[in-house]
Amino acid sequence: MGECTDLEWAVQVLVNNFDKYSSRCCCCKNPRRISKKDFRKMLSRELNHMLTDTGNRRAADKLICDLDENKDGRISFQEYWTLIGGIASPIAHIIRQQEQSVKLTK
Amino acid sequence: MGQCNCRKKRKDCQELTDVERAIETVISQFHCYAVKGQKEYLTPNEMQELVVQKLPHLGKCVGPLEEKIECMGDPNEAKLEFGEYWDMMGDAAKGCRRK
Question: Which CDD domains does this one have (chain B) (predicted)?
Fold first, then answer.
């Protein structure tokens, strides 16, 4: 990609991150997936700052819990994207609220 | 539009990993364009601006915008919330992977 924008850079980073932790299971024709173990590793290595907040940590725990219900045990790209979205969404909400309260106190 | 503090980084940014900075970027771009909805949602126009300006290479992976806008219903009422925006970025991401 030539000159990419901030947003395109961000999307690419998240894609590369999936590729970093995912692997193919047995046959090379299978799509890449992340095992639950590697997903936890990924969360603690790559999202350690974002998940220090207890609220966020709880959200992440819930996400992993939901994963456990999925008998498949391995996380596809779509599932990975949804999970990261589940982490991003409350953060987006918090940032919005913080900015609003700053405005109110001014 | 686009002139707001899109590039404003939080002060603890240096410590963040690339993945965290990437997530923050995706969030900040949404907030930056969601003017009318006060950072809660994008209008169809705002969504279109975002895709055209911020996804020049990946925009086509998101699919035809006109169709998406039509699906959103009445343009004066339609709202694209963060979750839907995130899914849209997921489509762009799948486009990345195909390359």
Answer: S-100A13
pLDDT digits (tens, 9 = 90+) for B63-86: 888 888 888 888 888 999 999 999
- Whether residue B23 and residue A89 make contact (CB cut-off 8 A), yes or no, is no
Q: Residue A35 pLDDT > 60, yes or no?
A: yes
Check if B35 contacts A (Cβ < 8 Å).
Answer: no
Give all domains of chain B, ordered by start, each with its CATH number.
13-98 (1.10.238.10)
Minimal Cα distance from B15: which residue of A?
A: A49
**Min distance A59 CA to chain B CA atoms (Å):** 15
Work out the number of other CB atoms within 10 angstroms of the CB of residue A49.
Answer: 16
Q: For residues A49 and B15, is the Cβ–Cβ distance under 8 A? A: yes
A68-89 in b/e form (b: 16+ CB < 10 A) is eeeeeebbebebbbbbbbbbbb
Q: What is the predicted pLDDT for the residue at A99?
A: 85
Residues of A in contact with B80 (CB under 8 A): none
Q: What is the pLDDT of residue B7?
A: 47
Question: Does the distance separating the beta carbons of B27 and A91 come in below 8 Å?
Answer: yes
Encoded tokens for A37:
């173990």
Q: Which of A9, A11, A82, A93 should be substituted to probe chain B, the one whose Cβ sees the most B Cβ atoms within 10 Å?
A: A11
- ipTM for the assembly: 0.84
Q: Is B41 on the interface with A (CB under 8 A)?
A: no
- Name the token pair of A102: 């700053």
